[in-house]
Amino acid sequence: MNRFMQDVQYALRQLRKAPGFTLTAVLTLALGIGANAAIFTLVHAVLLRNLPVADPKTLVRVGDTDDCCVNGGTPEENKYSLFAYDLYKHLRDNTPEFEQLAAMQAGFGYGSVTARSSKPDALPKALRGEFVSGNYFQTFGLRPYAGRLLAATDDVEGAPMAVVMSYQTWQRDYALDPSVVGSTFVLNTNPVTIIGVTPPGFYGDRMTDAPPDFFIPMVMEPVMGPTSILHKHGANWVYVLGRVRPGTALAPLQAKMSADLRNWLAQLPLYQREDQKKNLAQSHVVLTPGGVGIANMQQEYGKGLKFLMWISALVLLIACANIANLVLVRGLARRAETSIRMALGAQRKRLIRQMLTESVVLSCMGGIAGLVVAYAGTKVLLAMAFPNATNLPIDASPSPVVLAFAFGLSLMTGLIFGIAPAWVTSNSEPAEALRGSNRSTGDHSGWLQRSLVILQAALSLVLLVGAGLMAKSLNRLENQDFGVETENRIVAHISPDNAGYKPEQLQALYERIDQGLRGLPGVQRVALSLYTPLEGNNWSMGVYIQGRPEPGPNDPIGASWLRVGPEFFDIVGHHVLQGRGITTQDTATSLPVAVVNQAFVKKMFPKGENPIGVHFGVSGVKSSGDFEIAGVVSDVKYNDVRHPTRSMYFRPLLQVAHTEPAGDIRSLFAGAIMLQTKGSVDGLESQVRRALASIDPNLTVTRYDTFAGQISGQFNQERLIARLTLMFGVLALVLASVGLYGVTAYTVARRTPEIGIRMAMGAGRGNVIGMVLREAILQAVIGLAIGVPVALLCVRFVQSQLYSVAGRDLGVLSLAISILALSAFAAGLIPARRAASTDPVKALRTE
Questions:
Q1: Per-residue pLDDT averaged across 573-599, rounded?
Q2: Which among 190, 267, 254, 191 has a CA at the least distance from the CA of 225?
Q3: pLDDT tens for residues 75-121?
Q4: Model pTM?
Q5: DSSP notation for 579-621
Q6: E strand or H helix at 381, and its extent?
Q7: For 273, which of 27, 524, 662, 682 is 20 to 30 Å away at the CA?
Q8: Burial (CB count within 10 angstroms: exposed 0-12, middle 13-18, buried 19+), residue 847
Q9: How far apart are CA 489 and CA 251, in angstroms?
């Protein structure tokens, strides 16, 4: 220990003697280690951290996909991850292998409930509510921070309406007011009692950028909206997660639950059809570890975060090569000192240990500085990845795991960049001190320096190619033709059902909204709709064309659909290509009509038939005469921006067909208002909010955005990956250029006598510049020769991240090679010009 402390003190003295070297090395390491620590903070929080609950390792989820939010029919691959509520109860009551098996709502979002406290001056707020089973908190083994949590007795018919508030909501909106617990709130016009507050660290059953504000018993679902799906067997809308008993084998349990699933599904009319027997026989569940909860965000961000982790590791490797060159040059400059110490009896292993200690001390200093970079970088990353997040359960401050990661990374980095230079610089003979080792050109350290530069060039090319591909992919993704008009378009989301409106009251409400908003200064057009393009929502049904035989189970009859107001097509940018659009004449009592898009026509009328006047339905062949196609509009992307436009049909806001499924009454409640203005209107948001509040104080705006902003929000993850890849690519290029410059400058300094002799014998400035540049460019060319095939190989692993960009994009590859070649030329030119300015007389005198 004494020797170790001596080595540390010696290392600190040596670093103090070379402030320029120390500062350069620490900054380089801070960037490399900080970038890795920042990315790891997200990786740990999103992919590796378990739910803050009791013994998360014993939690098991029934399902493995992020299906959402209310699904019907047969799931993809007949694999169930969403369940009807009664199916959940069947599984719960027939699976004693679970200590507890809880259910939770699959889809909840901002504005899913309108909440107002009972205080006289309280205003309603658009917040998030999640329906959960009564044993939800018991399953997670949680204790309340205040009051009590839900119990099984709260989730039975006739029980008093009780809900639990999250700690974050209590802190953010109610300043930790203790009187909230036990008080009466109004949720969607229903008086409820706040019985307790969750523990501070609990953010729900899944990682999300908008955790729930209220946890509501499942039994309250029928009274919280205009229609209920609580006991609708054909509606799959809950996730299932439980805690297994000790010693339970998951494989037999999965087989048993799959059999129970099929027994229950066999009672449904859907699976009693002859063409569904094969699907019934293949229906099954997959049990997955539930420690992280419902892994929707993990599945969405997993590939991107792992990709960023790899590229940040490459940047750190380039930084290590750069520092290794600096340490090697510094060690060679101290070769005389090393030789004298060895001549005086110092052992080589002691010298190596001292040099390694100096490298590790240097890397730890870089690691400490890297934590500052990591903290700032993480805040930037969170802002880029989740720009509209509320109560995001990810802290930018380094956690103990991140601190341990940074410390381990620092030690590993010190060993990586320190061991080879320590070995080379200590491999000196004592006699060299008498020959003037600092001026000797006979050492063999140059190969290591050049190898490190070649490695930097190769890795830099890989990152530059990746950055180019990601940037090109993002550009094509953002600038594709969505078919919309975004200039002077506004989207305001509302929730009439949360405000307590019934279907028969909607006609009058929509007329008042239209009149109230149309009268605002600068507003040109107003249209209500069920949802809007590229907001992350989608409703779909199977379509049955009149006069055609009933399709088989695998026939492609699905189509998305939407209820819209008369001016919706004009605001969004749909062009009427045939027939007409939705008009004010399409009322609740008029003939049910639909307007379809081009994709619908291509899919449903592949032989080029004229769709105008054709009838179709959505509940089977018997309903196929429900809607008459009145027009065809141009395609607009509404949901998946990476795939072709879906077939789609549009219906008037309040028309209901006689054979329409009862559950679809929910679609009568408009979820959005689209506005077109004559230009930029100052204070429009507050005017819209006041106009709606004047109609009904409970009619709150749940989300307000420009149409362009809403579309831009679809690319947050792609934008994050592209920008970080570009940033890392530029950083790698700078490090590689600095490394090449350093090696070339050091080589020129060592060869000063040789250059002086050459110039004394008649060599011109051009010859000297060419000689130095050739050596610098040769290293870059070798790096390129190695980097090109490595880059093409690595592209295969990120092909799924790209949109409309080939992995072997010659344009991107050529640009990356050109940038690296120019950087290498610039890095070599400066020392080459300096070499050409050598005074032969002074050089020979020095020799």
A1: 94
A2: 190
A3: 888 999 999 999 999 999 999 999 999 999 998 766 688 898 888 77
A4: 0.81
A5: E----TT--TTS--EEEEEHHHHHHH-TT----TT-EEESSSG
A6: helix 348-385
A7: 662
A8: exposed
A9: 53
